[in-house]
Amino acid sequence: MTDENKLPGMKLTPISERFILHWGEMGSRWGVNRTVAQIHALLYLLGRPVPAEEIAETLGVARSNVSTSLKELQSWGLAKVVHVMEDRRDHFETSTDIWELFKLIVEGRRRREIDPTLTMLRDSLTSPEIENESRATEQRVRETLEFLETLTTWSDEMLRMKPDTLMKTLGLGAKISKTMRRTKS
């Protein structure tokens, strides 16, 4: 593409740039590729369909990196392809509903991280090899399984709630926690 035909990236405001850079840093800490997180942040802030070329130009990353990152976001359900009238290119967008995004991320992490751990723990406890372990090891495996099952049951219930109900529940939980801390003092 010649410079005159090159798509100009949009100019980010200082706040948008700070948000996108920070989201990329946080993504790295959560085990997500920095560029993947930055592209998600850009799509979230823009709230409109964006072609991959514009994403690459705006963030100053290679088009191939954008393609790979968009595929990862799509695998998480965090980006989808949309089409725009009179433009043959694929455009990409993400939800601007923070609760929907939170649910998608929690469900994705559970599917990739928690569910395999639950399977391994259950399989370990039903394996004949468990008899070769000490009672202490067996007990720790059992306690870990019980903890993760309780945690996933609780998170499933929270994710079924409507956002306003969940916010009220979280607020109530914070009040209960504060009260409990005060009574222990």
Automatic annotation (TrEMBL):
SUPFAM superfamilies in alphabetical order: Winged helix' DNA-binding domain
Gene Ontology molecular function, alphabetical: DNA binding; DNA-binding transcription factor activity
Entry-linked Gene3D superfamilies: Winged helix-like DNA-binding domain superfamily/Winged helix DNA-binding domain (1.10.10.10)
The entry's keywords: DNA-binding, Transcription, Transcription regulation
Keyword check for Transcription: yes
Entry superkingdom: Bacteria
Domain named HTH marR-type: residues: 31-89
Protein's UniProt keywords contain Protein biosynthesis: no
Pfam families with a match to the protein in the record: MarR_2
Similarity comment: family membership: Belongs to the GbsR family.
This protein's name: HTH-type transcriptional regulator
Gene source species: Orrella dioscoreae
